[in-house]
Design a protein that fits this description.
6-stranded antiparallel beta sheet, 19 strands, 2 domains, alpha+beta
Length: 448
């Protein structure tokens, strides 16, 4: 894997080759990662895995048409061939009047913000095994846990570099560390499983592995001997680890590509009051050590914090340059690049800001409802907003959790769900999308 400086130099070299081969414009992205993981099960080492990958991708524009091509070979001869083939492909491709690089006036310029994403610590395999073992031991020590699906620990490092033919060049490195545990509780045909998992940029920011393991064990034991729930309309409360998916559906609906295709349930709702005025959703790609932080986007534009929903009101779309041109708007610095193809939209660190009531108060007036800890399937229509997913969790009776339930469905329409959403004050920053406990009244629950 190249260093950020070496990767940046390779990207610039490939852009130069593409211009000499006849490209009118173009960009190059370099993506590389190396990771190592160790897993244990029932106290024994189960697997040690290491992977390394690197890829350089070239996109060129000729006469209004574009083509992209990639390679894992970074040598000079390979780059010469890559540039020539990409230009030949573009000359045979159809014209796309919306494709093209971002406006040069919008590009980010060095020095880029230092987001502290690169942890110098490199844990050894024996260190990862110890972390995994501590997590599994703690999970198996929880009374009621009868078996283990294993625990794991891993670390990785990646490098991203981008160069364009109209003046942008940048690169950065980022690391990741993770610990997970998954165990089983119950006997015979009444088995239940659950897990806990945490990830961080720096190893020092991870919780104690025993805490992760104990969380996995307690979650699993709480699910044993689930009952059924009767069908009807009732309040549904989403645990933070599944409530984040509701924000994910919002993000998918406000991408410029979805709006340009007229394939979003939020079409024509720019600036609309979607949520209660207490709801604010923010995007911060510049959070130090953030899991989704980055100093520039996939087109070389600067990234910046932004309120996606403020006071319950949608503030606009998330766009890369192509969809922005289709909509007659400006790109928002949310472009992301894979190894090939055109940029797509990706957000930074998303947070649904905490409300003013405790989790206990959020549940207090619910006479009969459900608390969802797991969602199953993908029954969400991004065009209509219709929502229907299998679920598991707990009954809520007179404001208290009243035993596990499973094999039920929660359904509604995302427009109505957003309007009814109430947030508790128990936000914790753990993932790329973080939300507190969320309550949505009036949903349809299908059980017995």
């Amino acid at each position: 894997m190249l260093t950020p400086a070496q990767a940046q130099e390779r990207c610039e070299a490939l852009i130069d080759r593409a211009r000499r081969a006849g490209a009118e414009a173009g960009d190059v992205v370099y993506l590389a990662n190396a990771s190592e993981s160790v897993s244990v099960r029932l106290g024994a080492l189960e697997d040690v895995e290491r992977s390394e990958a690197e890829h350089i991708g070239l996109r060129v524009f000729v006469g209004g048409a574009s083509a992209s091509i990639g390679s894992t070979d970074m040598g000079d001869a390979a780059l010469d061939e890559l540039a020539a083939r990409a230009v030949a492909m573009a000359r045979a491709a159809p014209v796309d009047r919306f494709a093209g690089l971002a406006d040069a006036a919008l590009l980010a310029h060095a020095p880029f913000p230092d987001l502290d994403l690169d942890d110098p610590a490199e844990p050894r395999p024996q260190d990862l095994r110890r972390l995994a073992q501590e997590a599994e031991d703690a999970a198996r020590a929880v009374p009621g846990v009868t078996n283990s699906e294993g625990a794991g620990a891993g670390s990785g490092r990646g490098v991203v570099a981008l160069a364009t033919s109209h003046g942008f060049s940048g690169a950065y490195a980022a690391t990741s560390h993770s610990i997970s545990a998954s165990v089983i509780a119950g006997e015979d045909g009444a088995l239940q499983r659950d897990h806990a998992w945490r990830s961080a940029r720096f190893a020092a920011d991870l919780p104690d592995p025993a805490l992760i393991g104990r969380e996995a064990g307690l979650r699993t034991v709480a699910r044993v001997n689930p009952g059924r729930v009767k069908s009807g309309a009732m309040p549904v409360v989403f645990d933070p680890r599944v409530g984040s998916s509701l924000v994910g559906h919002l993000l998918g609906a406000i991408t410029g590509a979805a709006i340009a295709r007229r394939a979003s349930f939020l079409l024509d709702r720019d600036g609309a009051q979607l949520f209660d005025s207490s709801i604010t959703i923010s995007d911060d790609p510049l959070r130090p050590r953030g899991l989704r932080s980055r100093p520039f986007d996939g087109e070389g534009l600067p990234t910046a914090p932004r309120k996606l929903v403020e006071g319950g009101r949608l503030t606009g779309w998330l766009m890369e340059s192509a969809s922005a041109r289709q909509l007659g708007l400006a790109p928002t610095g949310h472009a992301s690049r894979g190894g090939s193809g055109a940029p797509h939209v990706t957000t930074g660190n998303i947070v649904l800001e905490p409300g003013c009531v405790s989790r206990e108060a959020l549940l207090a007036d619910i006479v009969d409802g459900v608390y969802v800890t797991e969602l199953i399937g993908n029954g969400v229509n991004g065009v209509t907003g219709d929502y229907s997913r299998g679920a598991a969790g707990f009954r809520i009776v007179n404001g208290e959790l009243a035993g596990p339930i499973a094999e039920f469905t929660v359904a509604g329409n995302l427009i109505d769900m957003f309007a009814a959403m109430v947030a508790a004050d128990d936000l914790e920053i753990q993932r790329g999308i973080d939300v507190p406990t969320l309550r949505v009244d009036g949903m349809s629950v299908a059980g017995d």
